[in-house]
């Protein structure tokens, strides 16, 4: 087997996989604007690989889906025919995977603040360089507030790494793609404080922590999705209640006699659960349509019978 006119003495599965899949993957990165050629050269890929292998299997699958955006957000629920609006359950705006950590709802902001505080404490426990910590927190601040922080607030020693991470992008940071230039800076800090910890392990765990921030924002979003008072459910309640009032206002005249008792108590119907109200409204609308259609057919039949012949 030859690769680039060089005969391979043994088959390396990982090398072969890269040769087969990497060109198509790079093409997709360019087309989707996920990872630029400049960013690819800055990323600590070995660190990311180690981080992904260390994550629980469920979190690995979650990360894979969210990196390409194919997950249960409003955008894809519409594409899958599960929902009509692609609305965020927290704020009501259009929702894709990029929106989840950036949602401006109060509950999302509170969760983000909690996660950043926990991440900051984690960096202290790992004896992270104060300059690196400040720079990464500045970059995370840019996830939800996309402004370019002034370089003067960043220590000159870490500015090249900071700029490299900016090339990778804020979403890349949340997906665990850290710049390789952070590692020698952290190693230098360990040397200065006479710490014998592994900088590669620090970097891998840093990547995992960043992925976890995004994951916990998703978990918080899902918890709101199932609240009785989220935006989507409030809109559904409002829509179905309007439909119920409309049915009562139209009265029972164009409903079959066996269905008319369903219009006895408006208050009782409005107190039903959302699903029961939607089923009630669906049944009433269908029965009213069928009854009207039947009455029209009868009138046409009567006109035919009693119309004068030729």
Can you describe this structure?
Strand 1 (2-3) and strand 2 form a beta hairpin. Strands 1-2 form a two-stranded antiparallel sheet. Helix 6 (106-125) runs antiparallel to helix 7 (130-144), helix 6 runs antiparallel to helix 11 (199-225) and helix 12 (231-250) runs parallel beside helix 14 (274-306). The protein has helices at 13-32, 37-42, 45-54, 57-68, 74-79, 106-125, 130-144, 159-168, 170-174, 182-192, 199-225, 231-250, 266-270, 274-306; strands spanning 2-3, 6-7. It folds into 3 domains: 1-33, no CATH class; 36-225, no CATH class; 231-306, no CATH class. The protein is elongated, with a radius of gyration of 30 Å. It is mainly alpha-helical. The N and C termini lie far apart (91 Å).
Order of strands in the sheet with most strands: 1-2
Please state roughly what percent of the residues sit in beta strands, choosing from under 5%, 5-15%, 15-25%, 25-35%, 35-45% or over 45%. under 5%
Q: What is the molecular shape?
A: elongated
Number of helices: 14
Question: What's the short version?
Answer:
This protein folds into three domains: 1-33, no CATH class; 36-225, no CATH class; 231-306, no CATH class. The protein contains 14 helices and two strands. The protein has helices spanning 13-32, 37-42, 45-54, 57-68, 74-79, 106-125, 130-144, 159-168, 170-174, 182-192, 199-225, 231-250, 266-270, 274-306, and strands at residues 2-3, 6-7.
């Amino acid at each position: 087997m030859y690769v680039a006119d060089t005969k391979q003495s043994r088959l390396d599965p990982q090398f072969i996989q890269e040769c087969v899949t990497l060109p198509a993957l790079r093409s997709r990165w360019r087309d989707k604007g996920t990872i630029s050629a400049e960013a690819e050269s800055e990323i600590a890929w070995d660190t990311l690989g180690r981080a992904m292998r260390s994550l629980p299997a469920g979190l690995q699958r979650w990360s894979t889906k969210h990196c390409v955006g194919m997950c249960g957000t409003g955008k894809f629920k519409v594409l899958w025919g599960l929902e009509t609006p692609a609305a965020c359950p927290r704020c009501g705006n259009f929702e894709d995977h990029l929106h989840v950590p950036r949602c401006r709802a109060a509950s999302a902001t509170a969760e983000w603040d909690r996660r950043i505080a926990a991440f900051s404490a984690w960096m202290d426990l790992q004896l992270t360089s104060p300059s690196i910590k400040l720079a990464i927190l500045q970059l995370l601040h840019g996830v939800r507030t996309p402004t370019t922080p002034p370089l003067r607030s960043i220590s000159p020693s870490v500015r090249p790494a900071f700029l490299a991470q900016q090339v990778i992008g804020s979403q890349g940071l949340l997906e665990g793609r850290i710049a390789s230039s952070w590692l020698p800076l952290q190693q230098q800090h360990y040397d200065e404080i006479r710490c014998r910890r592994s900088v590669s392990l620090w970097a891998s765990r840093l990547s995992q922590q960043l992925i976890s921030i995004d994951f916990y924002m998703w978990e918080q979003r899902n918890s709101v999705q199932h609240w009785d008072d989220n935006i989507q459910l409030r809109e559904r309640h409002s829509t179905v209640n309007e439909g119920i009032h409309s049915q009562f206002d139209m009265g029972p005249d164009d409903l079959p006699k066996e269905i008319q008792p369903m219009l006895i108590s408006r208050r009782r119907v409005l107190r039903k659960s959302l699903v029961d109200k939607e089923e009630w409204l669906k049944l009433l609308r269908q029965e009213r349509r069928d009854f009207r259609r039947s009455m029209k057919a009868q009138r046409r039949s009567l006109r035919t019978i009693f119309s004068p012949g030729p």
